[in-house]
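Title: Prediction job returns without error message
Component: structure pipeline
Severity: low
Priority: P3
Assignee: unassigned

Description:
Job completed but the reporter wants confirmation the result is attached to the right record. Sequence as submitted:
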Amino acid sequence: MTDFRCSDDARLRGDPLVGTAPPARRWLLLEQDGGWAPQAFEGMRLDVAVKDDLAAAAGMSGARIMLIRRPGRRSSPVCLERAWCVVDAGAPEPVTWGSWSYDTDLHAAADLLRGLAAHGPARAPLRPAGRAPELLLVCTHGRKDVCCAVRGRPVAADLARAWPEATWECSHTGGDRFAANLVVLPDGVMYGGLDPDSAVEAVTAHHQGAPLTAHLRGVTGHAPAVQAAVVAAHEQRGPLPWGAVQPVGSRTDGMSHRVVLAVGDQRLEVSVTDRVTEPHRLTCSAVAPGRATVPVAGPVRTIAG
């Protein structure tokens, strides 16, 4: 079983991607060259007080901490300056960059997160594509899951050739079996099951206002049922530019959900039902089969407008 690859198995089974984007509504990205520990941020060699400050601020503000690096970059014995970035799609300035040469410089990132938290929870709007400085984050976290490195690195390299300033490798995004995985921020969209050619096509289509629904995992910062409803609207009423479909409400009754979406002056409703899959090995390192809960969207209905 040493040759087992979870992404190969998932593609053979045709595992659905929809509704699997991370729940994060804010993000703290820390540039760190070289290899990452299996737990990424937790394995960073940072001053304990600084690490505790960042973790506390991230917890208070609902931010996810991830490590980033430029594709193909390796660690250097001398690293004078690295970047940090806070992303909050609901903030007036959705992307804020800073730099750090010393661990204590990262207190500025923690202070920014606390300031965002003071203004209440992020509403995580689906920011229209291209309206703010963009980040293309490709998971290449091989020490978390081999598939992320094997499938992610070629994708990151090709995206970097097309969009060199926007593209970063990143630590674990979740959904290892959907590698290669791509998070587009601050738009708040996640694509999966990518290869180099389909990744370039996906980003190009995203920019052109026609997201590739076959590779859409969902919307970051929203519940799986809401993500599935948004993807269904793009599939059934599209092509629609990213950001045109906005969640405005949802109700849940057990494993059934009703999601209301706004598209311009129209109000749409989507019924979503949770389905539990058969057990499979869901990651390369899994020692036992596991089940996944998949949100399945029904027809998109117009209820107003």
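Comment from assignee: result matches the submitted record. The two ends are 55 Å apart (CA to CA).
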